[in-house]
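Long-time lurker, first post. I've been practising inverse folding by hand and with some scripts of my own, and I keep getting stuck on stretches where the structure tokens seem ambiguous. Below is the full token string for one chain I'm working on. Before anyone asks, I'm not after the true native sequence, just a reasonable design that respects the backbone. If someone could post their per-position residues I'd love to compare against what I wrote down in my notebook.
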């Protein structure tokens, strides 16, 4: 069934000033089918002859959001789309592009297929991290990839304890710990030795960062079990970040409660999208030397 997108929001990377021609080419393709509005990250105006809008305004007005950049650009747009049912697709101008999986060279033919209704839809879940001081809720943030507790000082370890569903899992010393969704399992957690989790799984993984104890291994848990992290009594300050943003300073009186968020993100993929093909391509599996 043909798609009926009235307004398309385009989110571009903050370093797109040097890629104006590509932005304009994408805008020209989109404008054949719908009104186009643009948000340029970290700039007041997009580097093309179009009126820029805020990211909040873009997600309010757009029927479809497209990112032009890498996975970081897509993650920013995804967090802005929390509680919206607006579909999101990514054109890859970055490096790996596990999420932004449409190549720039193939974009025009792919978007023609999208308008004709030939695409696949995938739901990815967010996690929410609630930041407490004792029993007082100080803030909460959403992440699509991961929530990370890490050392405040770059060259020192922290001690922390992790619980799930009210049960203590472990007390460990390391540079930090990653709580990752299946979406984030191919990001920082992968470089930390974590497992690759298929995006259809309803699971979370706890992945230590450079653990002091060699027996400290990643653990995969059901996503409906809340995970709580707090610093040990011997630790000084640490930081917690959500998809690499919204960093908070953590002390021994704080705790982070991580739960599966109720509303998912809607991703659009090419009609022939194959998750394992993406892994083979991006991770150089089955490469013949």
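-- Answer (accepted) --
I ran through it position by position. Result:
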């Amino acid at each position: 069934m043909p798609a009926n997108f009235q307004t398309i929001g385009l989110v571009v990377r903050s370093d797109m000033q040097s890629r104006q021609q590509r932005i304009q080419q994408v805008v020209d393709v989109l404008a054949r089918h719908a009104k186009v509005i643009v948000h340029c990250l970290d700039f007041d105006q997009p580097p093309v002859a179009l009126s820029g809008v805020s990211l909040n305004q873009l997600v309010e007005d757009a029927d479809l959001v497209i990112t032009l950049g890498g996975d970081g650009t897509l993650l920013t747009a995804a967090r802005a789309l929390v509680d919206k049912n607006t579909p999101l697709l990514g054109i890859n101008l970055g490096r790996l592009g596990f999420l932004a999986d449409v190549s720039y060279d193939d974009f025009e033919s792919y978007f023609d297929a999208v308008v004709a209704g030939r695409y696949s839809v995938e739901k990815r879940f967010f996690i929410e991290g609630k930041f407490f001081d004792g029993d007082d809720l100080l803030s909460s943030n959403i992440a699509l990839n991961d929530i990370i507790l890490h050392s405040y000082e770059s060259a020192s370890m922290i001690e922390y304890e992790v619980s799930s569903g009210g049960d203590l899992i472990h007390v460990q010393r390391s540079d930090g710990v990653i709580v990752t969704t299946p979406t984030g399992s191919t990001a920082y957690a992968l470089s930390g030795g974590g497992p690759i989790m298929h995006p259809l799984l309803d699971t979370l993984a706890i992945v230590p960062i450079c653990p002091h104890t060699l027996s400290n291994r990643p653990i995969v848990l059901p996503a409906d079990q809340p995970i709580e992290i707090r610093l040990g009594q011997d630790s000084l300050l640490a930081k917690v970040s959500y998809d690499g943003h919204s960093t908070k300073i953590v002390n021994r009186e704080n705790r982070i409660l991580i739960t599966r968020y109720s509303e998912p993100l809607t991703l659009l993929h090419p009609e022939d999208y194959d998750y394992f093909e993406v892994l083979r391509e991006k991770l150089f599996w089955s490469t013949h030397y």
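A couple of notes from the structure itself: The chain has six helices and 19 strands. The first strand starts at residue 7 and ends at 12. Happy to go over any region you disagree with.
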